Each structure stands twice: as structure tokens, then as C-alpha cells.
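Task card 7
Instruction: Convert sequence to C-alpha cells.
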Amino acid sequence: MELGKLVHHLQKERDMSVLYLSALKPETKTFLLTEYIETDRAINRLQVWPGNLDKLDRLRFETKTNMIQYLARRRQALTPSDGFNIQDEINFYTDIIKVVIKWMYDSINETEFAVVWKPLVAYQKLTSAKEDVGVERALGTVFYANGGFESHSFFEMYNTKVHNFRAYYKTAKLYSERVDMIYATTVQEVGNNLTDIIDQFRFDIQHHVEGSNASAFADLAKARHWFDNMTIYLDALLNIQQDLGSEILAILDTVVENVTSNLTISAAFLVIVILMCPFVIWTTENLTSSIQKYALTLVDKTRELTREKRRIDSLLYQLVPKPVAEQLKQSKTIEAQYFKSATILFSDVFKFNNIMDEFKAGDVVELLNELYYIIDSIIDTYDIYKVNATNDAYMVASGNHTGMGWHSVFGAILSLPVNNLHRHRR
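Output:
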């Protein structure tokens, strides 16, 4: 917005300076003072002035102060009789305006808010169109005041500015529907057909025969009429430019408000997360500790379960042969089996009843435990199954659970140490 206003005031000062140098010039430069003040104010209102504004690194573009001083020197020296001509004056201000417009273009391209790109482009193109209309106003004023252009280069410049304006204005309309709407409203307020009047002026200028009698064609009243209508036209473009600027600012305010709101929500979530972190860490540590304790408990229980399973298997193997026990654990049906031959061995303690009468019950129990422990350790070495052990009677079998043919040999081998053991204990 501020850059657009600066371009507008520079354009207006340029056109007024050209008017002062033309045949329509007032007697003094007093009317230019207002434009000088407004231009300086527009420069001072800029919050930022980049040091690398000019690609040619000219000193006058380094700071706002340098620019104001540069303009002041030109203003003081401006005198029609001191060798100043209209072309130099147009070039002086156009050079500055081009740099400012380039700055504005770069600012628009660097914006991060993609939602406003259409009105931004329209604003950009309209600013360029307004610059061309300003030059056209100055050239047209000179044309009607002098009765023609001084050279063909002025004629070519005029046509270039007209064609550039139309191209920029058409592009601005494509990117914003408000351009035509605001222009129509402004023209309606004026009360005359401004577009037709300006188009007629343009037709006269573009179809003027070069080399004709300039003094006969010069018309100061027509020059003033042209200047006044082009000023209204520029004011209409300025209204469009300001409206687009307001639209852009409104969109940006909405975007900034939404970004601020989202940032506030994100900050609130961040605070909550930060506040929750100690609790989460404490909970995680407790949970980890509980899991570790549970794992250790599970290991102990597993070991205990393994020991109990071994004890149960041991008891079960004492009740039935191991193959039968395995089938029982698998819930299989146990069917009776037939063996052609098997060896059964019975043993008892000689004169056990007399022993019971002579010794205490505890001694008898100790005797039997020692006896059966030794026999159990012997039968584990051979393929022999203990069937029963009641009091002093001990019954084993071989060949009935594996079907091996050596069962009689195993039985005989067992009977020898058992018999010797009985004799030793007696």
C-alpha cells in the first residue's frame, strides 16, 4: 500500500513538473510545493528502505534521506530557462519510479500468503498501468500545448505507453473483477463519458500528421481539457489501486488472525504436552518396573511349575509304565496289550514279622526306606518297571511295557543284588 502511494505521488510530481515546463506553465512553482511535500511524506512513511534497492548501486537509492535530498536538488534547479526539457524531466522521475516498482514487485513475489496472489498481481499490473498513463498525460499535454511532438521519438514513446497501459490494465482485470466495477463507479460519479473522451484524444494524437504546422494546431484550452480528464482518469486508477490494497490487507489480516489462532492452539497443546511429560515419564517408569517384576515372577513361577511337573511325572511313572503315562497325559484311550512272555519278580524281607516285633516302628520304616531306595536305584539301570511295594513285599516286571526279549535276563540280574542286600541287612 505505502509503495503504491509513493509511486502515485512520484507520478503526480513528474506530471506537474512537465506541466510547469510546457506552454501551460503557471508563472511560479508554488503549485508544485504541495506535490513535493506529499512525495516526501510518502517516502518517510515507509517503514523499510532496503540498502540494495538499486541494482546499479547508485548512492541516491541507499537511504530515504539520500532520495529526499536527490529530489530536493532537482526541484531547486527546475527552471524552464536553464536548459531543462520535458524529456529529461520525464526520464528523471521515470527512472526513480521504475526502481520503486521493481521493489514492489519483489515484495509481492516474496510474500508467503498464497491466498492473496490474484489481487496482488492485479495491484502490481495496475501500478504499472498507472505509471504509463502518467507519462501519457505528460506527453499529451506537451502535444496539445505545442501543437505536436518535438521529434518522432516522443511519438513512439507515447504510443508505447498507450499500448503498455492497455496490456497492463487488461491483465489487472483478468486477476480481479473489482477493477472494472470500481472504474465504472468512479466514472459514473464524474458524470461524463470519460473513456470515450480520452479515446478521442488518443485518436487525435496517434493520427496527427507529423511535420504539419504546429502553431496552427496548438490549443492550450484543449491541453488543459486533456490534462484535467487524464487527471480524473488517474484518480480513478488510484481508487482502484487503493481498493485492491484494502482488499489485500483485509485478506492478510484474516490470514494472520487464523495463523495467530492456530499458533495459540499449538502453543496450548505444547504447554499441555510439557506439563504431561513428567506424568508420562513417571507412569512409563512405573509400568516398566511392574513389567520387570512381573517377568521375574513369571520366571520363578515357570521354574516352580517345571519342578511340580517333574514331581507329578515321577509319581505318575511310579503308578503306570512311562509309555502308558505319556498316553494318559495326552488324554488318549489306553487299550490292553498282549505280551507272549514277561518276567515278574517278587521279593520280601526274611522274617519281617519278627523284625517288627523286635525293633521300633521308626527303625523298621528306616530299614524299608533304605532297602527300597537301593532297589529303585538298581532298576533304573535296567529295563525293569516297579509294579508295587507294600510293607516288605516288592514286585517288579520286565518285558510287559517295551516287549524286549531280554526281560528274563534283566530280572535275574536284579535278583542277585537284591538277594545279597537282604542277606547283608540280616
